[in-house]
Write a structure and sequence with these properties.
With about 450 residues, the chain is an alpha/beta fold. Helix content is about 40%, strand content about 20%. The chain folds into 2 domains: about 250 residues, Aldehyde Dehydrogenase, Chain A, domain 1; about 180 residues, Aldehyde Dehydrogenase, Chain A, domain 2, CATH 3.40.309. It has 14 helices and 20 strands. The strands form 5 sheets. The protein has a 7-stranded mixed beta sheet with strand order 12-15-16-11-10-17-18, sandwiched between helices. Strands 7-6-5-8-9-19 form a 6-stranded mixed beta sheet, with helices on both faces. A 3-stranded antiparallel beta sheet has the order 3-4-20, with no helix packed on it. The structure holds nicotinamide-adenine-dinucleotide (NAD).
C-alpha cells in the first residue's frame, strides 16, 4: 500500500481574504503520465470522426448554461469580478459554446480545390495532444477558447487553469467531462512549474492565453522540437477620440472600457488620445462618468468595480500610477486604495515619457493624452510593441481612415474591438503569435494534409 499526501492549492477571495476552496496540486512528476493517457485517448477520440465529436459535444452548451449561475458566483469569489460581469462571462461562455462548435466543425470539414487537371482535397487532421494554459482574468471564457476547437479538431487536451482561479477551471472541465470519454480532457493544477513541465512534455500544440513575457518563454521552450503554439498575449490598447467624435459616446466608452473587470482585461483601454479641440469637454465628461462607477463588494449586484485579483497586481498598478503622477500626470479623480481595491482613477496630461503609457497596466486607470492632428494620434497609438485591440471614435469614414493606419489586429469604430460572429480574435505584433476563432483561427488547431487526383492525363509541358 502506498500513502501519498496531497499538497493543496488554495483559492483566495481577493475581496475578503477568505479561502474559497482548494484543489490538489498536480505533482510535476505525474504530468508525463497524464500526457501519455491523453495520447492513448486521442486515438479513439479521433476515430469518432468530426460528426461523431460534434454530436457528442452538442449538449454541453445547455449544461454550461444550467451551471452558469454557479460558475459565475465562483468567478466572483475567486478573482473579484463584479457579479453582473461574472454572470455575463458564464452565460456568454455557454452561448458561445454552441456557435463556436458550429464554426469549428465547418472550419475542419474537408475542402476541395480543383482546376481543369487536378482535384485536390484538403484534410484538416488533429495535431495530437494539446496543452491549454490560461490566465485568471476570464477564467471560464479563455479556457474555452483553447479547449473547444482543439477537441472538435480531434486533439485531446491537458488543461492547466491559472493558479488564481483553479476552481472555476475545474468546474468548467467537470461540465465537459460529463460528456467526454475518459482521458480526452484532463486538468493539471499548479503554477509555472506545472506549466513549464506541461510545455516540455510529449505534446504537439500549446495554446496559451496570458502575458507577453510568459508567451515568449513558451515559444522558446517549444522551439527545439518545433512544437506548434498559439499565443494570445497582453495589450496596451489605445482609444483615439477624433475632433468629429460623438463626445458623450466616446467618454462613456472610455470609462466602461477602462474600468470593467477593474481594468483587468486584455483589450482594456489603456491609453486615451483625444484631439485637443474637444479635450476639455471630453475630460470633464470622463471624470463625471467615472464618479458614477460604484466600487465595493463584488457580490453586491449594484457594484460595478470589485477588487484587484491579488495584492501583487494591485502593487504593480499602484507603482505605475504613482510613477505617472511623479512624472507630471494630473490626478483628476480616484487614486485611493485600500486592501486589494484601487478606485477608478482618471489621469490627464499623460505623456509617452511615463511608464504607464508603455507597460501593460491591467488596472482601473484611465490615462488621457491630448494630440494635435490625426498623424500625431496615429504615431502615438502605434508607439508600442503590442498590437491587440483599439478603438477610434469619430465620423465613420474619417475613423476608418485612421483605423487602417493602426497596427493592432482588431480596431472598433465607435465601439469595442471585437468583430462579428465568425471573425478571429487576433493580436498583431507582440500581442499574438497565431490566434483564435474564425475559420482561420480554428484551423490552427489542425495540420492540413492534401491528396490530389488527376482529372485527366495531361502531358508534361516540358
Ligand atoms: P501569466 O502569463 O502570468 O499566466 C498565464 C498562465 O501561464 C497561468 O496559468 C500560469 O500559471 C502559466 N505560466 C506561468 N509561467 C509559465 C511558464 N514558464 N510556462 C508555462 N506556463 C506558465 O498571465 P496572467 O497574469 O494569468 O493573465 C494576465 C495576462 O493575460 C495579461 O497580460 C493579459 O493581457 C493576458 N490576456 C490576454 C488575452 C488575449 O486574448 N490576448 C486574454 C486574456 C488575458
Amino acid at each position: 500500500m502506498s500513502v501519498t499526501t496531497e499538497i493543496m492549492l488554495e483559492s483566495i477571495n481577493p475581496a475578503t481574504g477568505e479561502i474559497v476552496g482548494s484543489v490538489p496540486i498536480t505533482p510535476t512528476a505525474a504530468i508525463a503520465g497524464i500526457v501519455e493517457k491523453a495520447r492513448t485517448a486521442q486515438k479513439s477520440w479521433n476515430a469518432l470522426g468530426l460528426e461523431g465529436r460534434h454530436a457528442l459535444m452538442q449538449p454541453i452548451a445547455n449544461r454550461l448554461a444550467e451551471e452558469a449561475p454557479k460558475i459565475g458566483k465562483l468567478i466572483t469569489a475567486e478573482m473579484g469580478k463584479s457579479t453582473p460581469e461574472a454572470q455575463g462571462e458564464a452565460s456568454y461562455t455557454a452561448d458561445k459554446f454552441a456557435t463556436e462548435l458550429e464554426d469549428a466543425a465547418a472550419a475542419f470539414a474537408p475542402e476541395i480545390i480543383e482546376d481543369e487537371n487536378v482535384k485536390s482535397t484538403l484534410y484538416r487532421d488533429p495535431l495530437g495532444v494539446s496543452a491549454a494554459i490560461t490566465p485568471w482574468n476570464f477564467p471560464e471564457l479563455m479556457p474555452q477558447q483553447c479547449i473547444l476547437p482543439s477537441l472538435v479538431a480531434g486533439n485531446t487536451v491537458v488543461f492547466k487553469p491559472s493558479e488564481d482561479t483553479p476552481l472555476t477551471g475545474q468546474a468548467y472541465a467537470d461540465v465537459l467531462n460529463e460528456f467526454l470519454p475518459e482521458g480526452v480532457l484532463q486538468v493539471v493544477h499548479g503554477a509555472d512549474d506545472q506549466g513549464k513541465k506541461l510545455v516540455a512534455s510529449d505534446i504537439n500544440l500549446v495554446t496559451f492565453v496570458g502575458s507577453r513575457d510568459v508567451g515568449a518563454k513558451i515559444l522558446t521552450a517549444c522551439a527545439p522540437e518545433l512544437k506548434r503554439v498559439i499565443l494570445e498575449l497582453g495589450g496596451k490598447d489605445a482609444l483615439i477620440v477624433l475632433a468629429d467624435a460623438d463626445i458623450e459616446a466616446a467618454a462613456s466608452f472610455a470609462v466602461q472600457n477602462s474600468f470593467r473587470n477593474s481594468g483587468q482585461v486584455c483589450v482594456s483601454t489603456e491609453r486615451v488620445y483625444v484631439d485637443e479641440k474637444i479635450a476639455d469637454e471630453f475630460e470633464e465628461l470622463v471624470i463625471a462618468k467615472t464618479k458614477e462607477w460604484k466600487q465595493g463588494d463584488p457580490t453586491d449586484e449594484t457594484v460595478k468595480v470589485g477588487p484587484m485579483v491579488h495584492s501583487t497586481q494591485r502593487d504593480l498598478v499602484l507603482e505605475q500610477l504613482n510613477g505617472a503622477i511623479e512624472d507630471g500626470a494630473q490626478l483628476r479623480c480616484g487614486g485611493g486604495t485600500h486592501d486589494n481595491y484601487i478606485e477608478p482613477t482618471v489621469l490627464t496630461n499623460c505623456t509617452h515619457d511615463m511608464r504607464i503609457m508603455h507597460d501593460e497596466t491591467f488596472g482601473p486607470i484611465c490615462c488621457i493624452q491630448r494630440f494635435s492632428g490625426d498623424d500625431e494620434a496615429i504615431a502615438l497609438a502605434n508607439e508600442t510593441p503590442y498590437g491587440l485591440g483599439g478603438a477610434v471614435f469619430g465620423k465613420t469614414e474619417h475613423a476608418i481612415k485612421v483605423a487602417r493606419q493602426l497596427t493592432p489586429g482588431m480596431v472598433g469604430i465607435n465601439k469595442a474591438c471585437g468583430g462579428a460572429q465568425g471573425t478571429p480574435w487576433v493580436g498583431a505584433c507582440q500581442s499574438g503569435y497565431g490566434y483564435h476563432s474564425g475559420r482561420d483561427g480554428h484551423r490552427q488547431f489542425t495540420q492540413v494534409r492534401m491528396v490530389s487526383v488527376p482529372k485527366q492525363i495531361v502531358k508534361p509541358k516540358y
